[in-house]
Specification:
The protein is mainly beta and 289 residues long. Strands 11, 14, 15, 16, 17, 18 and 21 form a 7-stranded mixed sheet that branches. Strands 2, 4, 6, 8, 9 and 13 form a 6-stranded mixed sheet that branches. Strands 1-3-7-5 form a 4-stranded antiparallel sheet, with no helix packed on it. A hairpin with a 7-residue loop joins strand 16 and strand 17. The chain is rod-shaped and about 130 Å long. The termini are far apart.
Length: 289
């Protein structure tokens, strides 16, 4: 025969069973943990970005944790290891201990890829983390012309820079530099207006190298330095001495005039033109007969 006492304990027993069952379910809930703090990824066209790390784990699992990324990103178990488009972590007794993984932009991507890193497992709620990146194409076609040789203290012809490509593809800034040291060192900003696509050097008195730095976009690939061109300067000609003064009779032939061997100029070859004047030592000269 049932009594109020019996009903009471039967009800309490059912409550205890339910509590135990719920606690048991909670203990076996399939849970994924994903810990990340990603900055925007940046890379140069044709190069991988630097990697960033994150951690993933899980408890109560009945299947692998599968990790996927949007196109343009890739995953690895080590920062310098092989990268893949997906990874899978296998639980042991339902548990995946917190595992550090790595993600980066792949070297074949362009533009601004974005999307979510997703960690999933059958029966568990997916965990996601937002990803974004910017790929800046390397600057190309940054060439300048032309090598030339000028006279001492004269002005070179304008230096011409090709229209660059790459960078952000739309806007470029320029800085012309010069060096009197060599083609690979000693460079500083060139004189006068030095921020246009072309450059007009000032008069030079010594051998000088010029190059152009082009910038566009952001990141390490956003600037490019051209190869240097050379402007050689011939030094002033010296030791150009003619001798000697003489007095002769009417309609007679003077003795030969002697010219010293000059120095300076290009230092190797010289051309000569003798002139004469019947006016004075400073005027009226023309080619000698």
């Amino acid at each position: 025969m049932k009594t109020k006492f019996t009903n009471y304990y039967q009800t309490k027993g059912l409550v205890l069973i339910l509590i135990f069952y719920c606690t048991l379910l909670q203990g076996y809930a399939q849970t994924i943990t994903l810990t990340s703090n990603f900055n925007a990824f940046t890379s140069c066209g044709g190069s991988n970005s630097s990697s960033q790390s994150f951690a993933v784990g899980g408890t109560g699992l009945t299947a692998n944790i599968n990790l996927t990324v949007p196109f343009g990103f890739e995953l690895s178990t080590t920062s310098s290891g092989t990268y893949y488009s997906t990874l899978a972590l296998t639980p042991t007794s339902g548990t995946v201990s917190s595992t550090t993984l790595f993600i980066r932009l792949m070297n074949s991507i362009s533009g601004s890829p974005s999307g979510n890193l997703t960690a999933s497992s059958t029966g568990a709620t997916n965990k996601t983390s937002a990803l974004s990146g910017t790929v800046t194409n390397s600057i190309a076609n940054n060439t300048v012309t032309a090598n030339q040789t000028i006279c001492y203290n004269s002005t070179p012809a304008s230096l011409t820079g090709a229209t660059p490509t790459g960078g952000n593809g739309s806007s470029y800034t320029y800085l012309w530099q010069r060096s009197i040291t060599g083609a690979n060192s000693g460079f500083g900003p060139a004189l006068n207006t030095n921020t246009l696509i072309n450059y007009q050097p000032t008069a030079l008195t010594q051998k000088t190298w010029f190059r152009r730095v082009v910038s566009s976009g952001v990141g390490a690939c956003a600037a490019d330095t051209s190869a240097a061109i050379t402007i050689s300067v011939d030094t002033l000609i010296a030791n150009n001495i003619a001798t000697g003064n003489q007095t002769i009779c009417y309609n007679s032939t003077p003795t030969s005039l002697t010219g010293a061997t000059p120095i300076g100029g290009n230092g190797s070859s010289y051309t000569y033109l003798w002139q004469r004047s019947t006016t004075s030592a400073n005027a009226g000269f023309g080619a000698a007969l």
